[in-house]
């Protein structure tokens, strides 16, 4: 069953244009000490629970497809999100995990493909 979930995410990612609004190494627009470990944006033409596009971190392993998803909880905002990790190496997945839990202080679980 997990395989069909990731296959569906691959199809979604392939059918959507990726819009990067925060480049790797760039600072968050409101929090200058928050530096993004990878390109971060969303899948254009998709809808997440917050009404925006599905969030995506894009790594440097072109062609790998969806390698993991991050399930996040922001208790302060009372918000739950799914973030797609696309074309990420195992080290990049670990970096995103550390960024989400350490830098952003979000509850998170990473589900690997």
Automatic annotation (TrEMBL):
Recorded superkingdom: Bacteria
Protein name in UniProt: Inorganic pyrophosphatase
